[in-house]
Amino acid sequence: MGVVEEAEILARAYGVDVREARLAGLLHDWDKAYDDEEIRERVRELGLRVNPWILEHQPRLLHGPTAAAALGREYPAIPAGILQAIERHTTGEIDMTPLDMVLYCADALEPNRRFGRVDELRAQIGRVTLEELYVAVLGYWTILIIEQGKTLHPRTVDIWNAYAVKNEKPYINAKRKERK
């Protein structure tokens, strides 16, 4: 329930529909319990078109898209915006909506997360724009993944670059420069 609570905090701070944020937070990991092979089967069963490299090397990242597709079929009354946020919560995207960013950040910053800069990132809620928070969280996770020697989702660099160009200087780098 930590993601639900964090989604509500973020939604209130950034003027996003609280009910939608809470529902997205509640449902976002609908398919997370599936192991790699079960996720691959789920992708086939749902007829999803996904990057073959991801299917082979990072199938767990597909629990967002599979959950969104399955929930949309089983519960057609769930609003499309909630399903999109669920789909995007594992990797982010270039054209994130406020609800997408709320769920992405809530998943990364929920109270049970206890990694390096999580408290610093949480402290920025309401002090920076939602987009700045999203870019900071994306940047932090990207650095963490690289430091662990893991593979990045192929779109991660494109997403980062799109926001870096848009903002000239991504927020996370600006904060690091201030601390030096």
Automatic annotation (TrEMBL):
Catalyzed reactions per annotation: P(1),P(4)-bis(5'-adenosyl) tetraphosphate + H2O = 2 ADP + 2 H(+)
Keyword match Nucleotide-binding: yes
Q: Which UniProt keywords apply?
A: Hydrolase, Iron, Metal-binding, Nucleotide-binding
Q: Name one GO molecular function term.
A: metal ion binding
Q: What is its EC number?
A: 3.6.1.41
CDD domains assigned to the protein according to its UniProt record, in alphabetical order:
HDc
> Mind telling me which SUPFAM superfamilies this protein's record contains?
HD-domain/PDEase-like
Annotated HD domain ranges read 2-111
In terms of NCBIfam families, this protein maps to: bis(5'-nucleosyl)-tetraphosphatase (symmetrical) YqeK (TIGR00488)
User: Entry's PANTHER family?
Assistant: BIS(5'-NUCLEOSYL)-TETRAPHOSPHATASE, SYMMETRICAL, SLR1885 PROTEIN
The protein's name in its UniProt record:
bis(5'-nucleosyl)-tetraphosphatase (symmetrical)
- Name its species: Ellagibacter isourolithinifaciens
